[in-house]
Amino acid sequence: MFARFFQFERMGASLTTELRAGVTTFVTMAYIIVVNPAILAAAGIPVGPSTIATILVAGFGTILMGLVANRPIGVAPYMGENAFIAFALATLGIGWQLRIGAVFVSGIIFLIITLLRIRGWLANAISPSMKYAFAVGIGLFLSFIGLNETGIVKAGKAVPVEIGNLASGPVLLSIFGLLLITILLARKTRAAILIGIAVTGALGMILGYGKLPEHVIAWPQFSGPDGLAAIAGQLRFSETVTVNGVTKTISLFSLTMLPVLLTLFLMDFLDTIGTLMGVGAAGDMLDENGDFPQIERPMIVDAVTCIGSALLGTSTSGAYIESATGIKDGARTGLAAVVTGLLFLLCLFFVPLVTPLQSLTFAYGPALIVVGILMIRSISKIEFDDLTELAPAFITIVMMVFTYNIANGLTAGLVVYPIIKLAAGRWRDLNAGMIVMALLCAAYYVFGLVH
Questions:
Q1: What is the pLDDT of residues 83-141, one digit of tens each?
Q2: Closest by alpha carbon to 417, among 443, 390, 399, 440?
Q3: Spatial contact of 393 and 140, defined as CB atoms under 8 Å apart
Q4: What's the predicted TM-score (pTM) here?
Q5: How far is the C-alpha of 416 from the C-alpha of 258, rounded, in Å?
Q6: How far apart are CA 294 and CA 287, in angstroms?
Q7: Domain coordinates of the chain in residue numbers?
Q8: Hey, how many other C-beta atoms are within 10 angstroms of the C-beta on 208?
Q9: How many whole angstroms separate alpha carbon 361 and alpha carbon 367?
Q10: Under a CB-based contact definition with an 8 Å cutoff, are residues 333 and 18 in contact?
């Protein structure tokens, strides 16, 4: 039955390998159960309900990927997008409900453009150098958050940022965690990030910097103020806020929120494209032209899961590059994804075991820094010899990091790119999609919406 449904013969798969590889992907991705709720807590989303939402999204999204797309790809809330929701939108003064509403709308947009089959047009609208610049900028942004959260760096008095108190126990634990995860990754240890978080957290608890779990197993809470109901279905599309003594109503469909929607859409879109191409190459899934066959199916799953994420009260979700570990372990069909998804759902009964780790910045903070290390590798693919590509990429990266806002970097880069190309007489490098996005991003600055 499994062989027929998941097309084992055509995909060159076996039952034993698919089951084993599904477990491999799970242990590589499982760190998101700890890290995602911890990051979103900065936006005011309660950790307990957020943990349940994260697990449900990862579980059902990954199972859906296996059943609908028949691909061994895990799905979960994206790193980068969660930081954008939690930190970059803080200056707008809006509540988490409106931020999650933006996730919902961006998911709807993503689903529509996928169903209309205009994916290729948008994918080709952005130059490869700019796509890699987005990845580098987001990676450095995550690392900066991790450095701040752990206390390795802190706000300075004479300078904007300075070194933290390296004699502090939690800071030393953070450095230990960073080195441990890096070494485990260098040794190609499976679940390196998860192991690093768990070991560092356990060591911190032993030293008195955290509390041990009160329980190991518990029935998941879906109702009540501490249950999923506290965040599920709470998204909003407009909100009245008071900033600097001025009260105003902000709508998701206003010019103020246009850059937010554009950023969420592009981040999800580019993450999905990059992940699918990456895992496709790792598993020999690409065709003779280097394209991912039937790419609309996993992208539809991504879009539907993103919409479901918002309805459950968590951030943008999509395909995970960590799926490459399971693929390298032999996964070739959606059965591996179903196994991964079921293991995520099983975690619903072990929430008390992971909850204490979410309050320990020295445990999960190093994971943010390491993810940044992994993402910065994309910088080698930026065209350094072409200044019309390098300059917009550089502006994108530094604006993301130094303004502490992914949207600022993304929009700045997309506006500057066509300007430099036109001024250099390279107008043939441009396309209609790039011009349209540049004009949309320009409104962000022309109408004074920068934050």
A1: 889 987 877 788 999 999 999 999 998 899 888 877 667 666 788 888 888 888 888 98
A2: 390
A3: no
A4: 0.79
A5: 18
A6: 10
A7: 2-121+189-359+379-446
A8: 8
A9: 10
A10: yes
